[in-house]
Amino acid sequence: MHELKHAFERREALFVDQTTTRPRDNHYWDPVVITREEIDGEVARLAGLPAPADGRRQSLIVHPAARNDAPGLAPGIQVMLQVLLPGEATQPMRHNATEVNFCIRGAGRTIVAGRSIAFRQYDVWNHPSFVAYQHINDSDDIQVRLVYSNIPLLQHMEIYVQDFDVALDVESGPAITHSDDDPRRKNPYGTFPIGTEGGLLMPYETLINPTVVESKPLHFPWENVKAELDKLAALGSEYVGRRLYMMYNPTTGRTNGITPNFFATMTIRPPKIVDRPHRHVSAAINYYFSGSGHSTVAGNRYDWKAGDLMLSAPGWAVHNHASHDEPVYELTIQDQPLNIYMESLLWQESLKEAPALLGTQTGFQTNRKSAA
C-alpha cells in the first residue's frame, strides 16, 4: 500500500433484515494458563536466535480464539514476550498504541518520551501513544518483559500505525503548551449552548485542536509498591474485597487507568484466601510471580503457580481466585478504563447484588474498615 494512494474496490453495502431478530450471544473466550515452563522455553528459544537487525527478540502470546489479523490474549489486549540479551538494545520505534511494560527477569533501561527509566524485576511502567522508545539491556542477565498493549483493538479498527524510521529525540507532534498566551488555545468562534438540556455547539476549530492532556511515562518500582502492598496482608480473613493497589496514571482521570485502555494492579493474597465470586465485562489477565493457587471460572477449575500467565476472566464470566499454602503476588491487567469511558463497564461485585454500570452508576463498598 502506498502511503498516500490505494486502489480501492468498488463495493456495495448490504441491508441485513433484523426484524424480530436479536443480537447474537457473546462468544466467551476460554480461560487459558500459559505455564512458567512454556514461558521459560520460549525465552530460551528467543535467546538462542541470531541477533535480529532491529534487536527485537519477541513472541506474541495468542489465544486460540483470536482473529488472525488481530492476535491477542484477550479480544482487546495483546501480550508480547520480549527478550534482550546483555549488551543488546532495540532500534527506536513508535506507534499509536499505549503499552504497559512488566519486567519478569533481569533489568535494564527504557528510553521513552525523552525519559530514561532504569528498571528491575517486577517493575511496571507505561508508554504513552506515538512517542519514540527504545529498550536497553545494560545488565549481566537476560532481560525478559511482558508487554501489554491495545494493538488488537486498533487492528480490528484497521487504524494501527507504526513508525520504525524514528529517532529518540523526535517529537510526537507540535509542542505541548499550556500558556494562556498561545493563540492556538484561544478559539475566536466560541462554543455556545443549544437548547435547554446542557448541550453545546462546538466549532470545527475546536474539533481539530482539542484540550491537551499531557500523557507521561510513569514508573512503578516493585520495591516501593511491595512495601505498601504487604501492609494489606493485615486485613483479616473476613475481608471481602481484593488486597490490591492500582498503579494510577492521573492522565486517565475518573477511568482509573495506567493507560486509557488498561488498569494495572498489584495484588497480595495471604495463604488460604478465597475470593467471593464476581464478574465484570472487562477481561482480566493475571501474571503470578509468587505462590500458587487456583481460579474457578464459570464452574471450571484452573490451577496456577508462580511464573504462570493466565487469561483468568473472560468478559462477564463469573470467577473467583484462591491462594494455597503461601502468599501470592500477581500483576493484573484489565481493560476496565476503556469500558468505563464507553459506558459499558457492567460489574457485579457479589452475585447477591445487582450489577452496576461503573462510572455511570454508584458502585460498591467493602467491609475494609471493620476488617482492618
CATH architecture of the largest domain: Sandwich
Which consecutive residue ranges, at least 5 long each, have pLDDT under 50? none
User: CATH homologous superfamily of the largest domain?
Assistant: Jelly Rolls
Q: Describe the biggest sheet?
A: 6 strands, antiparallel
Total helical elements: 6
Q: Would you mind describing this structure in some detail?
A:
The protein has 372 residues and is mainly β. The chain folds into two domains: 32-163, Jelly Rolls (Sandwich), CATH 2.60.120; 220-371, Jelly Rolls (Sandwich), CATH 2.60.120.10. Helix content is 11%, strand content 30%. It has six helices and 25 strands. It has helices spanning 36-47, 151-156, 204-207, 222-229, 336-341, 368-371, and strands at 32-34, 57-61, 78-84, 94-95, 99-105, 108-112, 115-119, 124-127, 133-136, 143-149, 162-163, 192-193, 200-201, 219-220, 244-246, 263-269, 279-280, 284-290, 292-297, 300-305, 309-313, 319-323, 328-334, 346-348, 356-357. Strands 1-21-18-23-16-15 form a six-stranded antiparallel beta sheet. Strands 2-3-10-5-8-14 form a six-stranded antiparallel beta sheet. β12 (192-193) and β13 (200-201) form a beta hairpin. The longest helix has 12 residues, at 36-47. The model has no long low-confidence stretch (mean pLDDT 94).
